[in-house]
Amino acid sequence: MKRFILTLCLPLGIGCSQIMNDSSTSAQDNSPQLITQRAVAEPGQSSSLYQNAAVMNDNSQISRPTRKNINHYVRGIMQDMAENLQYVNTKTPLAVASFIYLDDEYNDGTLLGNQISESFMHELHSFGVPVIDFKTTNYMRVTPSGDFVFSRDYLELSQDQNFNYVLAGTMVNHQGGVLVNARIIGLTSKAVVGSAQGFIPQSVVDALDSSYRTDGVMLKQANE
Question: Which helix (H) or strand (E) holds 18?
């Protein structure tokens, strides 16, 4: 009887021991206990099922659309400006002003314009350009509500500032968003040494939440 089984196995090119192993493995794969052990890898051990799940999670995160904010669009504007920038390098201190609306008073700032300037400060620093934050006072003001080093009161700021160039720009409302015109200007010569333009979608602009406080309570300003 043993010789007959061996004769059947050999023409198929499969060893009997392999058939027995496959059948036992198949039976074990149907066991809920074994599936649980494979799904949760023990410490210090690897599990193919666990790794496949991790790959699937990574793929789902990659395919998931990433919501872009203002920083993303400012980064693109900064990259365009770096291509035609002159006289400004890693040894040239530079300041960043608030962006203003082209059809508005030039002394009226907005949350959008201030956030764009904050984003440019980060991008300039990433490019290696020294950025001067002229809104920093010479002291720390400690109050019951917090500790502050920034100020928009020019009387609290130093009159001597070490920068010869400034990054500034204008904005204009456009269908579907806001057009941004950015440039770097020499304070003495008033010459434009770098410029770039960009567009911020309205959905990204509307994502900014303007807030102000009254009697210690924060109030959200509704979007117009």
Answer: helix 16-29
The pTM for the full model equals 0.64
**φ and ψ at residue 191, rounded to 5 degrees:** -85, 140
CB contact at 8 A, 48 and 40: no
Cα–Cα distance for residue pair 87/132, rounded to 1 Å = 17
Q: Give the separation between CA 96 and CA 161, rounded to whole angstroms.
A: 13
Domain ranges for the chain: 17-63, 70-220
In the block, tokens 């333009």 appear at 197
Per residue in 147-181, pLDDT (tens digit) is: 999 999 988 888 888 899 999 999 999 999 999 99
Q: Would you state the CATH architecture of domain 70-220?
A: 3-Layer(aba) Sandwich (3.40)
Let me know the angle formed at the C-alpha of 63 by 59 and 68, rounded to the nearest 5 degrees.
130
Q: List beta partners, residue 214.
A: 217
Joined together, the tokens standing for residue 90 give: 């890693």
**Contact between 167 and 96 (Cβ < 8 Å):** yes
Strand partners, 198: 180
What's the rounded Cα separation, in Å, for the pair 88 and 194?
9
